[in-house]
Amino acid sequence: GMDKPQSWRKVLSDVDDTLCSSGGSYPAGIDKRYMKKVVYPGVLAFYRELDLGTRGPDEWPENRVGNLVFLSARPHVYKDVSEKINFAKFEKLRLKKADGRQGLHTTPSLLAGDIASGTEYMMRNDMEPLAAKKFDNFSRYV
User: Fold this and answer.
1) Cα–Cα distance for residue pair 109/90, rounded to 1 Å
2) pTM value surpassing 0.85
3) Which 3-state string (H, E, C) describes 70-89?
């Protein structure tokens, strides 16, 4: 029925200058309105509403992965180092705030970049392969 969340719904988002500010730190982003790594006001509530919907549960069960997926240009590297860093950030965001506000409502999935596109950026300062890999991840996912 209409009370069940839509299993086909996926919420795809970038991290830098979407979830949190890059502080204008090149190449992550250009937004200087907030300090680096500051989570944008209201964005966690926005993701929650998009993911759970208006007719879904108030919370996902602990064993259920939500529909939130982050795209990252950062490459998948040796022993998942960059993924571990990102997931540590996500887990920190899941904690309730001292003022009682809800944190991130679910542990999101992550679509990472690759070494080839990362190398092109590092060696040639060419961001096009990073963008192409991010778009390729998006295209394969949907």
Assistant:
1) 10
2) no
3) EEEEEECCHHHHHHHHHHHH
Strand, helix or coil at 2? coil
Q: Write the CB contacts of 21 (distance below 8 Å, at least 6 apart in sequence).
A: 29, 31, 33, 34, 35, 36, 37, 38, 40
pLDDT in tens, 95-119: 877 777 778 888 888 887 776 666 6
Q: In degrees rounded to 5, what are phi and psi of residue 119?
A: -65, -45
Distance, in Å, from the CA atom of 135 to the CA atom of 68, rounded to the nearest integer, reads 17
Q: How many Å apart are CA 10 and CA 76, to the nearest integer?
A: 22
* Structure token digits, residue 123: 């060696």
- The amino acid present at 103, given as its one-letter code, is G
φ, ψ (nearest 5 deg) of residue 71: -100, 135
Tens digits of residue pLDDT in 40-62: 999 998 998 898 877 777 777 77
Q: What is the DSSP letter of 7?
A: T
Examine the pLDDT at 5 and tell me if it is beyond 70: no
Q: Which residues contact 132 (CB under 8 A, 6 or more apart)?
A: 117
